[in-house]
Structure formats: structure tokens, C-alpha cells
Amino acid sequence: MTLFLQLGFQGIALGLVYGLIALGFVIMFKGSHTFNFAHGQFVAIGAYVVLVLLPRMPYVLAFIGAVAITVGLALVVERLLIRGLIGRSVTVVVLATLGISTMLHNAVLMVWGVGSHDSVGPVGAGTTKVGSVVLPNSALATVAVSVVVLAAVAWFFQRTRHGLALRATASSQEAALAQGIDVGRMFALSWALAAFLAVTASIFLASFPRVVSPSIGDLALIAIPAIVIGGMDSLMGAVVGGLVVGLTQVLGSNYLSDIGGGRLHEVLPYVLMLLVLLVRPYGLFGSRSIERV
Amino acid sequence: MSAALFEVEDLTLSFAGVRALDGVDFTIDEGELFAVIGPNGAGKSTLFNCISGIYRPESGSIKFGGRQLLGSAPHRIASAGIARTFQNVDVFPAMTVEECLLLARHQHLRSGPVASMVRWGRSAREERAALRKVTEVADRLGLGGLLQSTVGTLPHGIQKRVELARSLCMEPRLLLLDEPVAGMNHEETAEMAATLSEVNSDLGVTMLLVEHDMSMVMGISHRVCVLDFGRRIALDTPANVVRDEAVIDAYLGGAL
């Protein structure tokens, strides 16, 4: 039971990180109808920028610097490369983001090489004992920060005028324009928000395992089954989907380690994703109309 | 010549060689309730889309308060003080009525994305003022009790009313109404006509109404412009328009 609780907490922590990344995908998808395959590279770049800044300044400043740089990059990519494609077929936009992803990935390799570096998590390797359960401090920090960030995002969408304007743009661009909302700025805002979530996720993703390497960008693509499970257009679904994937991976890696050479947990999220696609194509929380896209 | 609030001059636009609008002219005075009618394909919707910045006409001009509107992006036209409703209601179905109306205050608010998350100082004052306006408009349109309802769950007639309320929350100087009673039954139509008339006279909102429903238009409009095949065939008071030979021949047929 103790082991289960420990693993469960780890799974929730990892799941929340996936949830933050998945949420970014969904916000961009809803805001600008773009499925951005380059989002994983924003996660990687965020982690590397923290890595570079960390020796020169306090942690909070390094994080803020990484957010500023990654958000700036996302805004440039959206404005110069994506904006002009909005309204074109989904395939065109997806292929463009795949191209951008490859470019960014190689840029990371050129600048920082293929090697891996130490974790950029905000807390060290210590553990905290709660009853008989031993919890890593990194997982505790992940859960605490993720919950605060997710609550802030929920507040933003439910209670602020920019959040409302983003929801309006996602619902109907024509009606949003008629309210005087600059839809182009809303596309930019959705990308900026997604990039902020990517950097937040990146500092914690680097705690599972505790390294920063170019493969972080690919690791972030595990958010895709999370989104499909939760529903492409549901913010809530992204977080729940992330939790499902995180728990599946952590529990699977332990309890199913005798099967398939211990690699089964890497496949399980995709198996779940395919099952959901077969039974409920719009995901657990998605709106039904999404299946027509 | 006194400066009208809204001036359309020689507006022309063709689609695949067909003239959807052919030299259309009219002016609307401050406070007027002005209607544009015509059969299907007369060019009403095209005219509407030119004014709201969705279509770009080939020639002509559209001036609002003396300023040229052509070439402005739709959201700039809205911010300039022109609100609109849609023929097939375009509300935000997943929002509550209150959220939907608050959104119309967006362009009047100044606080940035981060400041609006922290309700403090100006952003808090702005939000309170916006909420007051929303409540006032909702009460006027009989939506006061529905502020917390989800728009998508309300009946069609009420959604049309929400859409009207949303456009009024923008405090527009000109309100464009695209078939405000489309799909409504007699009772709802009469109610909507009364509301529009009341909003026009009490709040002094200038209105441009595009409509199919003849009796409704004739009952509330100050002046009526009749389009047929993209051309203006009449522009007069409702009483004179129904007697106009050209209108009866070319468009109303023997119906009146």
C-alpha cells in the first residue's frame, strides 16, 4: 500500500506536468485552430534557457527570463510562420508546425549539443516522509506549483476579460470581431500562454528523470495521447488526460515491469488513446462536434 | 448639406460577374431607425457585410461620423462604435449570459492581461463599472433573471435577445441588425419589434435594420430603403414605400 501511494503521488506529479503541456496544446488549438507539433520544442528550449541562466542569477529570475525568451520565440513563430496559414487546411498547418519543430530541435542540438545536463528543477533530490510514505521533494514541488498554475489559468479563463475574449475567439471569430476583439492578438495571446505553460512544465519535466537533454522535446509529445483522451478542445480534459497518462506510466513501469521487457508502460498511454478514439472519438470531455474536423 | 451619421455612396460589388450591389446610396441620420428590405438575393447581406468590414466593395464609400470605414478591419469598425447582430444568432453558447454581455465591454476596458488577473485599482473599478452596465442592459431587455444561465441552453428567441443585449452593451453609435426576427413566432416578433422601437427612442441608438418581415419593418422604421438585384429602387417613409409603383411591380408583386 505504501508503495502504491508513493507511486500514485509520483504519477500524479508527472501527470500534472503532462497536463500543463497538454493544456498548452489545447489553448493553441482552441485559440488559433492550430495543432502545434513544435510545442514540445518550446518545452525543451525553456529548460535549456533556465540551464543557461541559472548560474548567473537566482532561480526565480532564471525562470522569468526563460518564460520571456520562450514566449518571445512563440510569438515570433506564430506571427511570422503560422498567422498567414490560419484558415488553410489543417494538414497544411500541421505540416508547417512539424517543419518548425524539426528546425527548433536542430537549433537546440547546434547550440547545446547532444549531451545531457543536470536537472533544472527548483528543488534538490531530498525526500519528505508523510506517515510511512516517502515522497520526493521534486514531486511535492511539482504538484504544488502545477496546482497553483492550473488554478491561475482557470481563473484567467473564467474571470478575466482577456480570458473571456479568448473563449469568444475560440467559439466564433466572426462574433468576436463584432465585439471589437482583435482576433490576431488573441492568437498571439494563446501562443504566449501556451509557451508560459511549456516553460513551467519544462523545469519539472527535467526532474523525471533528473536531466536536461534534447530529447525533452520528444518527451513532451506524450501530451498528445493526453489530449486525445481528454478531448482536443477541453481545458479540463487536457489536465485529466495528463493525469491518466502520468499515472499509467508510473504505475505501469512498476507493476508491469515483468511484461514486455519492462517497456510496456511506454506503450500504454497510446493503447488508451486508441481505445478512447474507438469508443469516444471526441475524448472524455471534448465537444461532440470536434469529430467532424 | 448637414452631415449625416452614416453615409453610403455609390457602393458596388460583384461576385463572378453578378452585381450584388450596384451603386447603392443612402444616408442615416443620428437617432434614426432605418430599414433595408428586399427579396432574397437583393444584396441585403452583401451590404451588411460591406459595412461590417467582411467584404471589400469594388467602388464607393462608407462614411461613419465623417470618417471613411472602407478598408478597416472588422474589429476596428466595431471599436469605432458600430455594433451588429447576426442573422443566424452568433452568441457564445458555452458562456453564461453575464459573460457574453461582459465581453461586449472588452473594448471599453484598458487593463492588460496580467493586471486583469489581479483585481486591484483600475482593473477592479473597470470590472465593477462593466458589471453595472451589463446588469442595466440585461434588466432593460428582460434578461435580468437569466444572467447566470448558459446561453446555449436558452430558447432561440431569448438567444436573439441576448445577442441584442450584447450589442447594446458595446454602447454603439450605430447598431446593425441582420434580420432580428428571423425564425421567431408572431408573439416573439411583436415583442422584439417593441423592444427595438423602445431602444431606439429611449436610448437614442441609431439603427440600420435589414429584414424580411414586412409588417415588422413598416411598423417601426422611420425610413425604408428597398433593394432589388443590388439596386436601390425606393427610399422613403414606410407609408410611401408601400404605395410606390416600382416597389409593388418589381418586388412586392401583388402581395400588398
UniProtKB/TrEMBL annotation, chain A:
<dbReference type="InterPro" id="IPR001851">
    <property type="entry name" value="ABC_transp_permease"/>
</dbReference>
<dbReference type="GO" id="GO:0022857">
    <property type="term" value="F:transmembrane transporter activity"/>
</dbReference>
<comment type="similarity">
    <text>Belongs to the binding-protein-dependent transport system permease family. LivHM subfamily.</text>
</comment>
<protein>
    <submittedName>
        <fullName>Branched-chain amino acid transport system permease protein</fullName>
    </submittedName>
</protein>
<feature type="transmembrane region" description="Helical">
    <location>
        <begin position="187"/>
        <end position="208"/>
    </location>
</feature>
<keyword id="KW-0812">Transmembrane</keyword>
<feature type="transmembrane region" description="Helical">
    <location>
        <begin position="267"/>
        <end position="285"/>
    </location>
</feature>
<keyword id="KW-1003">Cell membrane</keyword>
<feature type="transmembrane region" description="Helical">
    <location>
        <begin position="134"/>
        <end position="157"/>
    </location>
</feature>
<dbReference type="GO" id="GO:0006865">
    <property type="term" value="P:amino acid transport"/>
</dbReference>
<keyword id="KW-0472">Membrane</keyword>
<keyword id="KW-0029">Amino-acid transport</keyword>
<dbReference type="GO" id="GO:0005886">
    <property type="term" value="C:plasma membrane"/>
</dbReference>
<feature type="transmembrane region" description="Helical">
    <location>
        <begin position="89"/>
        <end position="114"/>
    </location>
</feature>
<keyword id="KW-0813">Transport</keyword>
<dbReference type="InterPro" id="IPR052157">
    <property type="entry name" value="BCAA_transport_permease"/>
</dbReference>
<dbReference type="Pfam" id="PF02653">
    <property type="entry name" value="BPD_transp_2"/>
</dbReference>
<keyword id="KW-1133">Transmembrane helix</keyword>
<feature type="transmembrane region" description="Helical">
    <location>
        <begin position="12"/>
        <end position="29"/>
    </location>
</feature>
<feature type="transmembrane region" description="Helical">
    <location>
        <begin position="60"/>
        <end position="77"/>
    </location>
</feature>
<feature type="transmembrane region" description="Helical">
    <location>
        <begin position="220"/>
        <end position="247"/>
    </location>
</feature>
UniProtKB/TrEMBL annotation, chain B:
<keyword id="KW-0813">Transport</keyword>
<dbReference type="InterPro" id="IPR051120">
    <property type="entry name" value="ABC_AA/LPS_Transport"/>
</dbReference>
<dbReference type="GO" id="GO:0005886">
    <property type="term" value="C:plasma membrane"/>
</dbReference>
<dbReference type="Pfam" id="PF00005">
    <property type="entry name" value="ABC_tran"/>
</dbReference>
<dbReference type="InterPro" id="IPR003439">
    <property type="entry name" value="ABC_transporter-like_ATP-bd"/>
</dbReference>
<dbReference type="GO" id="GO:0016887">
    <property type="term" value="F:ATP hydrolysis activity"/>
</dbReference>
<dbReference type="GO" id="GO:0005524">
    <property type="term" value="F:ATP binding"/>
</dbReference>
<protein>
    <submittedName>
        <fullName>ABC transporter ATP-binding protein</fullName>
    </submittedName>
</protein>
<dbReference type="InterPro" id="IPR003593">
    <property type="entry name" value="AAA+_ATPase"/>
</dbReference>
<keyword id="KW-0067">ATP-binding</keyword>
<keyword id="KW-0547">Nucleotide-binding</keyword>
<dbReference type="InterPro" id="IPR027417">
    <property type="entry name" value="P-loop_NTPase"/>
</dbReference>
<dbReference type="InterPro" id="IPR032823">
    <property type="entry name" value="BCA_ABC_TP_C"/>
</dbReference>
<feature type="domain" description="ABC transporter">
    <location>
        <begin position="6"/>
        <end position="254"/>
    </location>
</feature>
<dbReference type="Pfam" id="PF12399">
    <property type="entry name" value="BCA_ABC_TP_C"/>
</dbReference>
